[in-house]
From TrEMBL:
Superkingdom: Eukaryota
Stated name of the protein: TLDc domain-containing protein
Domain TLDc, residue spans: 154-337
Signal peptide: none
InterPro entries linked to this entry: TLDc_dom, TRIM45/56/19-like
Species for this entry: Nematostella vectensis
PROSITE patterns attached to this UniProt entry: TLDC
One Pfam family in the UniProt entry: TLD
């Protein structure tokens, strides 16, 4: 009897030991499976994130191409609807002057800042040129007079007439009179890039429009119904100020960018330490630094004003000048004069 009990005890101990070993084995296998599942989940998430980034980039690329295509169509439609012979010849001259660079452009991208691809037929243009008489004296010329008007802007002189028309269209609703003229009060190439000089030249002159050129390629700026002064007044409120972009990244069509809310107490920042500043208070929507032509501090990042087409909502804005921070090559300021 005692022998049987002892054997039963050994059997129970062996069962418990076997169960412990089995439990340990199962736990070990479960741990291995959990690790495999965790690793696999990480690989899947990494692959999904990579695919999501690729899809996002493809979507943004398609959006940019769609915007460029729309810009091309709108520009072509506008030229067909509104252009006269002089306008057509102007575009012809621009295309002919850029033939070598246009030939290197991809076929699915706009070939000029206006966002339109043109096929040049030399025989056709030659015959048309003979039929059209252009008064050279009526063409835009660039002077250094204090009374230079917007139509003779040095920045816009190398661009097509459609850009001037778009800018005048932006300004028309805020003009004080149909007979108003926009007279230049500041030119960085003529007056220098010192912020204090800008304020001296533009002191008390409002409404005004600021034109900025970067690399001779990008053109943008802002309108303010509030004067720039020598008084270091800081933030100034406005209901009518707006930014605009004329020649921008990827050939997007010219766009007017109003304040998101009106009036806005951070519409402009008036201080002699800086050039024209639009928006704030944390980041400036358009900031032109002191001696901007010699540094890369000036920037665009619209928050108080609407963001342009093609700009993301959570990152630096490179639509205006190709990069968020830039070095302008020219800036002009025109103020409204009512005759």
């Amino acid at each position: 009897m005692a022998l049987l009990e002892k054997a039963q005890q050994h059997l129970d101990e062996n069962k418990r030991a076997a169960r412990r070993d089995l439990d340990q084995f199962i736990d070990k296998q479960i741990g291995a499976l959990e690790k495999m599942r965790s690793d696999l989940r990480g690989e899947i998430e990494s692959a999904c994130q990579k695919q999501e980034k690729q899809l996002t980039a493809q979507r943004e690329n398609l959006s940019m191409r769609l915007a460029s295509a729309r810009s091309s169509l709108e520009f072509a439609e506008r030229m067909c609807r509104e252009a006269n012979d002089v306008d057509v010849l102007s575009i012809r001259n621009e295309v002919l002057s850029q033939l070598s660079s246009l030939a290197e452009k991809p076929v699915d991208q706009p070939c000029m800042e206006g966002g339109v691809r043109l096929v040049v037929d030399q025989e056709y243009w030659s015959s048309m040129s003979k039929k059209i008489s252009v008064d050279v004296s009526s063409q835009v010329s660039v002077g250094e007079s204090e009374h230079t008007v917007l139509e003779k802007s040095a920045i816009l002189s190398g661009k097509g007439p459609e850009y001037l028309r778009d800018l005048l269209g932006f300004l028309q609703p805020v003009q004080q009179s149909p007979k108003s003229r926009w007279v230049r009060c500041f030119s960085a190439k003529r007056d220098g890039w010192a912020a204090r000089t800008f304020h001296e030249k533009c002191n008390g002159k409002a409404p005004n429009v600021v034109l900025v050129s970067v690399g001779g390629r990008y053109v943008f700026g802002g309108y303010s119904d509030v004067a720039w002064t020598m008084s270091d007044r800081g933030w100034q409120s406005s209901s009518r100020s707006f930014l605009f972009t004329l020649c921008n990244k990827n050939g997007y069509r010219p766009e007017k960018l109003p304040l998101r809310r009106t009036p806005d107490e951070y519409a402009i920042y008036d201080h002699t330490s800086f050039g024209p500043v639009f928006g704030g208070p944390v980041f400036s929507d358009l900031f032109i630094d002191d001696n901007a032509g010699g540094n890369e501090v000036s920037c665009t990042d619209p928050l108080m004003y609407a963001r342009p087409q093609g700009a993301t909502f959570d990152g630096p804005c490179d639509v205006f000048a190709g990069t968020c921070k830039f070095t302008p090559n020219e800036m002009e300021v025109f103020h409204e004069v009512v005759d």
